[in-house]
């Protein structure tokens, strides 16, 4: 399913299925919220020949730049699971260490589905082994 002008419609088999992983990096310069980022990305993907849609996403947002963020900094984990609903949903708010732990758990689950996606978009992603997006990104590279 995806939203077209406010109406939920099934994703046609011909539409490319895209997963988005990454983080805010602490930046609010390019977008204000994960919903805004994913909406804007969805609009751009709709222009791809044959169409494309975000069907899954895992996104860590932190109020501080992640390069120097303290493990106790406030953070949130946002996901998209288009099989349930196409909109981004915050599934956890808490300390960065808690959010990253849950993100790694979801990464381990999401990497098992990578072969079902046509593309992976990484935005300020943590690709390190054991990182919040490492599993998905390594699976996409194989």
Beta-strand segment tally: 7
Number of helices: 3
State the end-to-end CA separation: 27 Å
* Biggest sheet features: 5 strands, mixed
Radius of gyration: 15 Å
Mean pLDDT: 83
Order of helices and strands: EEEHEEEHEH
Q: Residue ranges: pLDDT <50 for 5 or more in a row?
A: 1-5
The percent range for strand residues is 25-35%
Oligomeric state: single chain
Q: What class would the helix/strand composition place it in?
A: alpha/beta
Q: What strand order characterises the main sheet?
A: 6-5-4-3-7
Apparent shape = globular
- Give the helix proportion (percent range): 10-25%
Task: Explain what the structure shows.
This protein is of the alpha/beta class and 142 residues long. It contains 3 helices and 7 strands; from the N terminus they run E-E-E-H-E-E-E-H-E-H. The protein has helices spanning 34-46, 96-110, 134-140, and strands at 2-4, 7-9, 16-23, 52-62, 74-81, 85-95, 119-123. The longest helix is centred in the last third of the chain and has 15 residues, at 96-110. It starts with a strand and ends with a helix.
Short account of what is shown:
By secondary structure, this protein is α/β, with parallel strands linked by helices. It is built from 3 helices and 7 strands.
SSE topology sketch:
Elements: E1 2-4, E2 7-9, E3 16-23, H1 34-46, E4 52-62, E5 74-81, E6 85-95, H2 96-110, E7 119-123, H3 134-140
Parallel strand pairs: 3-4, 3-7
Antiparallel strand pairs: 1-2, 4-5, 5-6
């Amino acid at each position: 399913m995806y939203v077209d002008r406010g109406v939920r419609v099934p994703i046609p088999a011909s539409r490319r299925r895209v997963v988005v992983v990454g983080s805010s990096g602490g930046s609010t310069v390019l977008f204000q919220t994960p919903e805004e980022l994913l909406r804007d990305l969805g609009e751009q993907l709709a222009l791809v020949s044959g169409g494309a849609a975000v069907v899954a996403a895992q996104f860590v947002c932190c109020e501080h730049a992640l390069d120097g963020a303290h493990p106790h900094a406030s953070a949130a984990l946002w996901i998209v699971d288009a099989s349930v609903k196409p909109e981004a949903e915050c599934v956890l708010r808490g300390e960065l260490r808690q959010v990253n732990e849950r993100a790694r758990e979801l990464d381990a689950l999401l990497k098992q589905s990578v072969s079902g996606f046509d593309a992976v978009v990484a935005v300020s992603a943590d690709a390190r082994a054991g990182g919040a997006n490492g599993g998905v990104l390594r699976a996409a590279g194989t």
